[in-house]
Amino acid sequence: MFVIGTAGHVDHGKSTLIKALTGIDPDRLREEKDRGMTIDLGFAWLELPSGREVSIVDVPGHERFIKNMLAGVGGIDLALLVVAADEAVMPQTKEHLAILDLLRIRRGIVALTKKDLVDADWQELVSAEVEEILQGTSLEGSPIIPVSAYTQDGLPELVSSIDTILAQTPPRKDTGRPRLPIDRSFIIPGFGSVITGTLTDGQLNVGQEIELVLAQKRARIRGLQSHKKTGDHALPGTRTAVNLSGISHEEVHRGDVVTIPGWLRPSQVVDVRLRLIPDAPKALKHNAPITFHTSTSETLARVRHLDHIELQPGETGWAQIKLQNAAPVVRGDFFVIRWSDVTVGGGNIVDTNPKRHRRFHAPTLQHLEVLEHGSEKDVTLEALNSLGATNVQRLAQHANLSVENARIQLASLIQDGEVVTLGTNNTVFLTNTTWLQVIDRAKVALDTYHSQYPLRQAAPREEIRSRLMLESQISTLALQRLVEKNIIEEVNASLKLPGHNSKVSEEQQQQLDQYLKLLEANPFAPQVTTVPDIDLLNLLVEEGKIVKVSETVIFARSAYQQMLDHVITHLRTHGSITVAQVRDMFGTSRKYALGLMEHLDQRHLTRRVGDERILR
Ligand code: GDP
Known about the structure:
Elements: E1 2-7, H1 14-22, H2 30-35, E2 42-47, E3 53-58, H3 66-73, E4 78-84, H4 91-102, E5 108-113, H5 120-134, E6 144-146, H6 155-167, E7 179-181, E8 184-188, E9 192-198, E10 204-205, E11 209-212, E12 217-226, E13 229-231, E14 233-234, E15 239-245, E16 257-259, E17 267-276, E18 288-294, E19 297-305, E20 316-327, E21 334-339, E22 342-351, H7 362-373, H8 376-387, E23 389-390, H9 392-399, H10 403-415, E24 419-422, E25 428-431, H11 432-452, H12 461-465, H13 472-484, E26 489-491, E27 494-496, H14 506-521, H15 534-542, E28 546-548, E29 554-556, H16 557-574, E30 576-578, H17 579-586, H18 590-602, E31 606-609, E32 612-615
Parallel strand pairs: 1-3, 1-4, 4-5, 5-6
Antiparallel strand pairs: 2-3, 7-16, 8-9, 9-15, 10-14, 11-12, 11-16, 12-13, 12-15, 17-20, 17-22, 18-19, 18-21, 19-20, 21-22, 23-25, 24-25, 26-27, 28-29, 30-32, 31-32
Helix pairs in contact: 7-8, 8-9, 8-10, 9-10, 17-18
This protein binds guanosine-5'-diphosphate (GDP).
């Protein structure tokens, strides 16, 4: 299915032509009828001689309603540029043509309307003028067909030309992620909210759950219509009306996008290839405030030039645009910028989730170049590079490829050694470059830790995990892999570099030996007055030579094990034990006996019942 959009100056006969072609009056608002002028978008459809049905979006020509024109023209396959033969090229003829060019609409037909008002010579002159303004635009060389809606003269030729061009138009791409940018919403009593728009990128089905991206609301498709015919699904490239259930009408706005839930996150910043039209009134300065229009949405924004100090009329450059209100966009979407109510430029989005870039930074500009022009494989790699580590769904969104295609590209990149996977089911992907950085970060973090705490055998996992600069779940997987590859080692739950050992001086070692001797001399009631430094002490704990049952009660491992065995055996035979019994059993003090029993409670080996302990 295909969509035709009109364009052209106000009063040049767009609506009249659509009515003559289709029998449908696209001016649907009362005000439009009263003023005899299109204000907002109008819709019609037509069956062509080949049997092909096409949708038509009629846009307003008045300069005050350019915003509405922009909302209608996104997603069209063919532009019908209307120029009245008596008035010839006028300001909005040029502005609309500039917009079609910026949106890279490459198929068009010029309808030279009101043929009945001019003679053949004049018609020739106007034709020549139109040909000239098309030069250098995406519509250069489009057929120019003189018509009269009044006499019907030229209409069959126009229809046949539309049919011929659409027969050569490739079908709409289907990435499996349908997007319906809302251009109209209304309530039908008894049915609820209805939204309309031009469906792209995938199919919608009745009963399906959808998401309104900006409103962050979910709803269900109760009904679908195209050209006033009800169906159970809608295909990409069709004007579609969707009846939604489970959402209040106040939550539905032009500019929002209906899609399948969970994948499209609105962008606050976008990297773009930006072109200033030759007719722009002056250079676009760095940080200049503009309005940013893409599909049906618009927002205030600021332009940061990345490779120009400022952009002159007619120039093209890389820019990062910071949007005041987030926009639901994907890579490859086209946009238009306006400034003081004049269209000054536009281009295409190459990154929907970029970092802030340094200006005039060669590697950044190279990265953008690949994102714009590279093969699908190159784009996958670049997108993965800017995302860090991620799953295939997010990557597919970022690169604007179908999930299936992203998988194919990844498989080939893995084979080339460019991409590494993590997780038992290989669900996380990162570029080899990122992986090398992760390895480096882990090594540096451990090295720093080891030199900061020379007496500690290993670093707490958390400490290293937070240094990897990865999402927390992914960093767990990364650490797992680093251990598997023997790049780092695991000691209990902590981590160390292979070959690292705590550095104990001779003097410190003597201190430790003496301390152990003292502990063992009186194993159940050690008489120790000076305890080694905490890090030294922890070393003995890590090595399993001592057990700290509390901050102040420490036993040698062998003594601890004996006490544990005896207490458990006693409990098995007698059922319970008191602190006094423990004290007497080992000829120790109440402090040590109590310390031991509280520790066993904490280990969930025993449970306190009154003055006694029983086994858990
Ligand atoms: P739009 O603003 O471009 O949609 O223009 P309209 O379709 O509203 O037409 C503007 C005016 O031109 C109306 O008064 C129409 O009746 C008139 N008009 C449209 N088409 C023709 C035509 O083929 N011949 C003549 N003579 N007048 C036309």
